[in-house]
Specification:
258 residues; mainly alpha; 8 helices; 5% strand; globular
């Protein structure tokens, strides 16, 4: 379901709580009524709760790439994974009057949401390659994490002194700028829904890269892989939105990360 729902209050365990919970389960193993199957179910539930990154405290987007995303502006959280196009905005008015225009065949189009090829083509040329390369190397990062190749994995996210950032990190701000150029109509004053949601998923990718790097430094395989999966969902959701604006005359659509 790609409708954007109001975010409810969700209780997420801290790592300390999870550790104490695991220790308590170990102690209970000596109890005569202890069940290993029940303990394993509880462990899995704790782990699932711990890595529900979509329900985390966003701290007013203080660490986000751009503060004004869909969650910040609307107080609602898009789904973790977007599986198709979202309902577009249909603004009826701008500063100059009605945006609806009559076409020769009698149909109407909304110029408030129209972004010209003249605007989209240079934006794609400027940022498209870097974003696509970032996504490809993010996919390679996932394999390095599976192999527990920590040094190799770190090279995909850690910026060496006096060196440019690795492609997955370099792509982050460019994802924000790309969405602004591809989805913002000069006829509509203010960011529309698609742009705000695209920003939201770019921010989620940014969070995932930070979380993965911390997990790599701690050599925490489970945390690293779960954060990578979260980031993959965010990359793919972002692509679902911006690919709508990438027509054949603009360039090639972005490939989703498997």
């Amino acid at each position: 379901n790609n409708d954007i729902n109001d975010g409810g209050a969700v209780y997420v365990l801290s790592r300390r709580q999870a550790i104490f919970g695991a220790a308590a389960a170990t102690t209970m193993a000596t109890h005569p009524n202890f069940s290993w199957a029940a303990a394993e179910d509880q462990r899995q539930q704790l782990q699932e709760t711990l890595y529900r990154y979509e329900n985390r405290d966003r701290n007013s987007n203080k660490e986000a790439l751009i503060r004004e995303d869909y969650w910040y502006m609307m107080g609602k959280t898009p789904p973790r994974l977007l599986n198709g196009p979202i309902l577009q905005d249909d603004p009826q008015w701008n500063a100059f009057g009605s945006c609806s225009t009559q076409q020769g065949d009698g149909a109407t189009s909304n110029s408030c949401t129209y972004v010209s090829l003249k605007q989209r083509i240079p934006i794609y040329s400027k940022y498209g390659f870097s974003i696509a390369l970032g996504a490809k190397e993010y996919a390679l990062l996932g394999q390095a994490l599976q192999d527990q190749a920590w040094n190799k994995a770190a090279s995909y996210l850690a910026t060496a002194p006096q060196q440019p950032p690795p492609p997955p990190v370099d792509a982050l701000l460019k994802m924000v700028l790309f969405a602004s150029g591809m989805l913002s109509s000069p006829n509509y004053n203010g960011p529309n829904k698609r742009l705000l949601v695209a920003r939201f998923y770019a921010n989620e990718v940014g969070f995932a890269t930070r979380e993965i790097l911390e997990a790599i430094q701690a050599k925490d395989t489970t945390r690293a892989i779960e954060a990578w999966k979260f980031g993959r969902d965010s990359w793919n959701s972002y692509f679902q939105i911006v690919n709508e604006a990438v027509s054949p005359k603009v360039g090639e659509k972005f490939e989703l990360i498997p």
